[in-house]
Amino acid sequence: MNDSGLSEFCKWLAATPLSHTIQSAGWIIPTLQTIHILSVAVVFSSAILVDLRIWRLLERDVPLPEIARRFLPTIWPVLLILLLTGSLLIVGEPRRSLLNSTFYLKMALLAVAIMLTAGLQRSISSSSIFWDKDRWRRMAGQFAATVSILVWCSILFAGRWIAYTQAG
Amino acid sequence: MQQLQDFISYFENSGLADNIRENDVLFPLIESMHVVAICLVVGSILVVDLRLLGLASIHRSLSRVTSGILPLTWSAFAVAVTSGLLLFISNATKYLGNGYFVAKICLICAAGLNMAIFHGISAKDLPRWENETLLPLPARLAGGLSILLWVSVVICGRWIGFTMRVQ
Amino acid sequence: MVSPKMVFLAGSLILDFGGIAAAHHSNAAYDLDHPQTVEGTVKTVNWTNPHITFVIETDAKNAEPASTWVFEVSSPGVLTRSGWTKRSLQPGDHAVFRYAPLRDGNPGGFLLKVTLPSGQELSYSLTPADQ
């Protein structure tokens, strides 16, 4: 990571008119963060509901494909809202995220979560008994669901923790 | 009033509160758990509210939607309240002096009241209409109000962080 | 048409109950590109999560009377990782404070460095890599 290059980029970004607008109006960043949090609630809950169903902790009597079809598709458009609000937050406060290792950890975890969730969605829609064929599939499904829950929770932790490892 | 102040001080000055207030890791940890919990509360309640509004899960009866979701909602709410309480005692007096914090608690109570009232008035004839795609007006009002209240809770929650007074 | 700014201001007026006119701002509220210096005495140390604040009584200088300022820093974790302790700055300490001023001109800012009379400097790195 080219630290001084990144620093210079942050300085440049902070000086742009868009950044200045976001910085000067005190209500913009809290508003962006609020929309971000609400979107996280939708994405996170959707993923967790499906993971809990795989573990048969919720909606046991409903087939997994039906649960997946109800909740997983919502994730993708809402991720776009997260991308938009997140980008504006970065533009408003470049140093807070771009010079913060916790932010990059969050992005790496997000990449994993996206691949995992997309994989789950695809596998479940390809075959209704993909994760239920036999004992091994069931165990593999529970493992995948557990990893999914842990990764998604870690993303939320990392997101909050950004504020605690930023220094200016 | 003095007794209330003493009661709050007892917790605010406890070793536990000191630790949460000053420790490098404890506050972020508890706060993150609080965020996870409230995301699940709001996200899960949204599923029920969208059913009440007739916007999602419309081919399932209301009681099936709620029975499938509310156990998660209540578990997450328990975690949210516990973590919230721990965060609160770390700076109780200042939080009580913050209007957004007070508003947030009131809004949560209002949301609970909204659901209790709806449950009370609809319980008797629920089986008659709960399979309909479009539910009766009280159901739609309760769902819409619930969304407004919980979104407001999140807004107030975030705004607490930007409005804490120093002294 | 009610603007978001109006709603925000109205909300602030209704929901802000008294206290020193200083609250946490996002870092965007501080002008980090034009740091200033001021001398003063520490009145209060709020070593609390999520944000540490120091209340300072600035020295009367030239035509400017002494006044009460609030400096915000980061969290206890960031400071302790950079060598601070809870007792690094105590009420009664006189020091030179280098800070990024609030864009709206209110007294206070984001504290960047403290120079104690002994010459000791209290600072923290601007990138977590150095912590």
Structure description:
- The complex is a heterotrimer of chains A (168), B (167) and C (131).
- By secondary structure, chain A is mainly alpha-helical.
- Chain A has one domain (3-165).
- Chain A has helices at residues 3-14, 17-24, 28-54, 64-92, 94-98, 101-126, 135-165.
- By secondary structure, chain B is mainly α.
- Chain B has one domain.
- Chain B is built from eight helices and no strands.
- In chain B, helix 6 (99-122) packs antiparallel against helix 8.
- Chain B is elongated and about 55 Å long.
- Chain B starts with a helix and ends with a helix.
- Chain C is α+β, with helices and mostly antiparallel strands.
- Chain C contains two helices and six strands; from the N terminus they run αβββαβββ.
- Chain C has a five-stranded mixed β-barrel.
- In chain C, strand 1 and strand 2 (53-58) form a beta hairpin.
- The longest helix of chain C has 12 residues, at 4-15.
- Chain C is globular.
- The chains are: A mainly alpha (168), B mainly alpha (167), C alpha+beta (131).
- Chain B binds chain C through residues 20-28, 31, 90-91, 97-100, 102-103, 159, 161-167, and chain C through 11-12, 14-20, 22-26, 44, 46-51, 53, 55, 70, 75-77, 80-81, 86.
Short description:
Chain A has helices spanning about 5-15, 15-25, 30-55, 65-90, 95-100, 100-125, 135-165. With about 170 residues, chain A is mainly α. Chain A has one domain (about 5-165).
> Structural class, judged by helices and strands of chain B?
mainly alpha
DSSP summary: helix tally of chain B: 8
Rg over C-alpha atoms of chain C, rounded to the nearest angstrom? 16 Å
Provide the residue-averaged pLDDT of chain C.
Answer: 82
Arithmetic mean pLDDT of chain B:
93
Q: Tell the overall outline of chain B.
A: elongated
**Order of helices and strands of chain C, N to C?**
HEEEHEEE
Radius of gyration of chain B: 19 Å
Question: Largest chain-chain contact?
Answer: B-C, 26 and 30 residues
Number-wise, the strands of chain B total 0
Ranges of chain B with pLDDT <50 over ≥5 residues? none
The count of helical stretches of chain C stands at 2
> Spans of chain C with pLDDT under 50 lasting ≥5 residues?
17-21
Q: Summarize the biggest pleated sheet of chain B.
A: none
Structural class of chain C: alpha+beta
